[in-house]
Amino acid sequence: MASNVYDVIVVGAGLSGLQAALDIQQAGLKCLVLEARDRVGGKTLSLRSNISGQAVLKSELGAAWINDTNQSSMWKLAQELGLNTYQQNIIGDVVVQDTDGSLIKFQYGDVPKYPSVEDTASCIAIRDLVHEASVSQSPSIFLDGPHRQYLDTISFETYLREAKVTAKGFATAQVWTHAMVGCDPSEVSALYFLEYCAAGGGLMTMRGDGKHGGQYLRVREGTSAFAEGMAQKLIAGSLKLQSPVVSITQAASNGSVSVTTRSADTRTFQARRVIISVPTPVYKTIAFSPQLPPAKTAVTNRTRYGFYTKYNVTFRRPFWLDKNHCGLAQSFIGPISVIRDTSLDDGKTYCLTCFMGGKFGRKWAAQDAEGKKRSVLKQVADIFADGTDISDLFVEAFESPWMEEEYSGWGCPCPVTPPGVLAEAWDAMCAPFGNLHFVGTELSRVWRGYMEGAVRSGSSGAAETLLGLKATNPKL
Q: Which of 16, 23, 8 is nearest to 463 (CA)?
């Protein structure tokens, strides 16, 4: 077999692509991974500093948490790679910044008590309604039927209005969409948001920072260590970085696929099957021949990111602990929608991760770098330090790059769909096309948008690819 001819080519070296490649390699087939960036990992990105020759985690700009129960693939991978984990801090008070700037404090696991009993009841009711809709099996949100069709005709905002939430209940739900998918409730279909929650085991599980929750365990070595460790398992020479794919051509005569990259020198590789492991908005940057089917193009052209940025701020000391805050907060006025304590477990690196999403995030992003920092420090001080000046405690800040990053599709964490797309188009979005297969966390029905979803999708795509190869060559 010629050196540039492969059984399978994987486009993209994020977690889904790397997992697919490892499964293909495990099956004894020749596999090539093409990655546009100069690194592996996709939307995992750990900032590290060198101390005494050792890489020490400073901050997570992408995916940051796993758990050891319902994220079994990531937990298994952590064990295989010898990575160390520690728990997200939930000891102390959580804070809600209300619409008038006042603060409501409560213990993690409890609920905020607003001045209006009606508001408190509305927040609990909408939480329970969304959670139940996302975990119910009668009918399941994933099961085709009139309920699924209807939920896709309305926005999540309309869903909330139909539930007759109070303004406080609406603001609570808006925090969820801002922090989870970077959207205002009006920008995403009710079906998409409920299905997104269902993929993670329900709203309460996805929002949870304790055992079983989506934000339970941190990784001491940084989440980039997952992809780096996976890449180490690939056969030498089977990963090519800085090789953005510009065209994919399926030959009508023999079904072979040509993949052309743009790098220092343009190269074309041949394969029997290709696995596409890039976000759907990135499909537009690749020239497919023949063109992708209209059903697939119609939906992928309508998937879109909200506005979602992580702004990580490090401080000289964890002043939020002084008043028994656990570092978790949510705001109804922004610019930050959610704050989490992401201090390292080294006893000297103290960090708050600020999630900027939706309309709050877009307004914040219109400022220059100094304005962004100043507005964040003011809000953090208002929430955790009684409004006192904390600028002398500031060390540095890191802003996630995804909104400006072509190979992520100019966004994070996961493309969403507006009303009228998902119910009719899910199968088309996931379906193979000829000898092309499609994977990625957004195509997973388990922990969509998370590392777990990426790895599971990669394995499913590899299995589908292997079945296709065996159908054409039973000896494989």
A: 23
Residue 2: pLDDT band by 50, 70, 90 thresholds? low
284: burial class by Cβ within 10 Å (0-12, 13-18, 19+)?
A: exposed
Closest CA to 39 of 31, 30, 27, 48: 48
Band the pLDDT of 475: cuts 50, 70, 90. low
The identity of residue 476, as a single letter, is L
Task: Give me 471's structure tokens.
Answer: 């159908």
Q: At a CB cut-off of 8 Å and minimum separation 6, what does 169 contact?
A: 119, 122, 123, 125, 126, 160, 163
Binding-site residues: 16, 35-36, 245, 355, 442
Burial 290-310 (b: 16+ CB within 10 A, else e): eebeeebeebbebbbbbbbbb
Q: What is the DSSP string of 16-59?
A: HHHHHHHHHHHTT--EEEE-SSSSS-TT--EEEEEETTEEEEEE
Residue 218 bridge partners (DSSP): 86
pLDDT tens-digit readout, 306-362: 999 999 999 999 999 999 999 999 999 999 999 999 999 988 999 999 999 999 999
Annotated binding site for substrate: 355
pLDDT at 253: 82
| Neighbouring residues of 214: CB distance < 8 A, sequence distance ≥ 6 | 65, 67, 200, 205, 206, 207, 208, 447, 450
The owner of tokens 């995804």 is 402
Mean pLDDT computed over 246-261: 94
Please name which of 86, 81, 95 lies closest in space to residue 65, comparing C-alpha atoms. 86
Ordered structural domains, the chain, with CATH: 5-85+220-304+415-472 (3.50.50.60)
Q: What angle do CA 76, 16, 6 make, to 5 degrees?
A: 115
Q: According to the model, what pLDDT value does residue 1 have? A: 43
Q: Which residues contribute to the annotated binding site for FAD?
A: 16, 35-36, 245, 442
Q: What is the pTM of this model?
A: 0.96
Tell me the three state secondary structure of residue 275.
Answer: strand
